[in-house]
Amino acid sequence: MTIFCGPANSNHGRLREGDRRFVLYDKAGDPSEGSAGMSLLRQIQKDRIVPSLRAWDLLSIALSIICADTAERRNKTPDGWTRQVALEIAVGDPDFWNNNKSLLERQLKFLTTDRWQLKFIDLGLLPEPPKRPEYPDRDCVSLLSGGLDSFVGAIDLFSKGKKPYFVSQVSRGDKCLQRKLASMFGEEPNHLQLNHNVKNPGKNETSQRSRSIIFLAYGVLAATALKKYKEGECVDLYVSENGLISINPPLTLARIGSLSTRTTHPIFLNLFQNLLDAAELKINIFNPYKLKTKGEMLRKCKNQDTLERYASETTSCGRFIRRQKHCGRCLPCLIRRAAFHKWKKEDTTDYIYSDLSKNHPDFSRFDDVRCAAMAVASVKSEGIDSLATTNLNAFLMGDLAPYREMLDRGIRELGEFLDYKGVR
């Protein structure tokens, strides 16, 4: 089976039985087809920015990857996880992307542990430039999710005199918060909010291990539209994420490989940088916090007054979109709560499951809480290598000592919070 993705006028030929098609940047013309990116295109046109050709291509590729990741069900595979994904994508420069598809296939394999087979054809989207284009006069791009880490990143950039252009993936409950946070850092326009709006005619695969590639594609698109980029300068793209979540070591042996997400893992970001370099896109990706725990990010933030005032309004929960509240017991919530505890500031976030000391499946015996406690105990007795070895690679990451030290501090930070909450 092959998944075909491209604008409505792209020619993929006749589909065979079992093949699927997604229309990019427009409505699907048939109930059997999926779609993605229509509202995204409208927003970019509304903001009158002018990205480069290869940035448009990268966006089309990222949208197509999200379509395939949504459409291909893991439970239909022999091992219940690893998929064989054949994907054909319409782009503006198919020769370049076919010559460099191995770079993409390699990073997708790392992100999802699937086997990806990519093919690129002509007739990709390149919209007509607006009559009165905007070239935002900003000196860098920063991803702004509405989460605590990206908010700290924004504060620190602004405190250093930077003028970031913020880019957000909109999800239910985050749009107004993202606007509010961005409005604190300079005059508008300084914020691009996008939503991929993937619509799959079948049942969705929910694991979504490839999602970070669309966020990065948004950032690249915005970076190539800046006045600074148009004048021939390199643009820095900041992806602010604490090191513990970036490495995301499996807390138990049951969560190896891509069962734990790798959305901002240093290896993936390095592979993505290699792709940008090959595409001659003058953009440098940075995660300034790859060697810091979340608690260290809070304690060392450059503007403590602003952070203390708004930190509890940010979102971190892996399930926030479902209930519009923090659950308080998933791993992102636990790391968030541990960071506040390390920071020694009041956490006024409204958590559904606040009291983790209760010996009940909803509280201290919930899977993530139990796994976190087991990880803390393992590190105490055996050292950080009991968790970290599967997610660290000296050949691809260089000296691993700083990463091990950061992970050890991060797990201990988590342990201090669990002990404070009475989780044993």
Structure notes:
With 424 residues, the protein is α/β, with parallel strands linked by helices. The chain folds into three domains: 2-121, no CATH class; 140-286, 3-Layer(aba) Sandwich (Rossmann fold); 316-420, no CATH class. The chain is 42% helix and 12% strand. The protein is built from 18 helices and ten strands. The strands form two sheets. It has a five-stranded parallel sheet. It is globular and about 60 Å long.
The amount of beta strand, in percent, is 5-15%
Order of helices and strands: EEEHHEHHEEHEHEHHEHHEHHHHHHHH
Q: Could you estimate the helical fraction of the residues in percent? A: 40-55%
Query: Strand arrangement, largest sheet?
Result: 3-2-1-4-5
Name given to the CATH architecture of the largest domain: 3-Layer(aba) Sandwich
CATH topology of the largest domain: Rossmann fold
Average pLDDT reading: 92
Outline the biggest β-sheet. Answer: 5 strands, parallel
Number of domains: 3
CATH class of the largest domain: Alpha Beta
The global form is globular
Radius of gyration: 21 Å
SS element count, helices? 18
* Total beta-strand segments: 10
